[in-house]
Amino acid sequence: MSPTCSQRLLADGFGRIAENLPAIVDGLSVDDLLWRPYDRANSIAWTLWHIGRMEDAQIAPLAGTDEVWARDGWVERFGLPYRPRAMGYGQTAEEVGAFRLEDPTLLTGYYEAVHAATLDLVESLSEEDLARVIDERWDPPVTTAVRLVSIVDDAAQHIGQAAYVKGLLGLR
User: Fold this and answer.
1) What DSSP letter does each residue of 10-38 carry, written as one string?
2) Which residues form the DinB-like domain (predicted)?
3) Other CB atoms within 10 Å distance of the CB of residue 147
4) What is the CA 25 to chain-centroid distance, rounded?
């Protein structure tokens, strides 16, 4: 069965994140990835980790699966000083500053695994699934399609932020 137009559009949007994330990491040292333009700013590494975490945490319930973060051992591999379900929302500047990374391939590997789970979900969704209301707390209520577009939008904004900080590296 060939993908629907909706599936192709969603896969393309998520695919752009999957292309841009490793391009930002490429050529950067661990120090570059952890650098913050000022003490209350987010580092590139933290921002890219947050992209994966927020996507993973929202895709898993839609797919009816566990988060890749815990299921596949990424929480242990990263070894962050956060609670296991942390994803960056509401973290203080001090918590962001506590983010550490020894191996940049953790960022790209984790996002690749999340992206694969996202594409599995997207490929499984019918038009009826996409129209299903999943959150009635909003006006209008949020459908699966709206949630997926929101995830792409949030990730795209964060990719832009990380790219901007990468551009600032030459000015430090």
Assistant:
1) HHHHHHHHHHHHHHHHTT--HHHHH--SS
2) 18-162
3) 16
4) 14
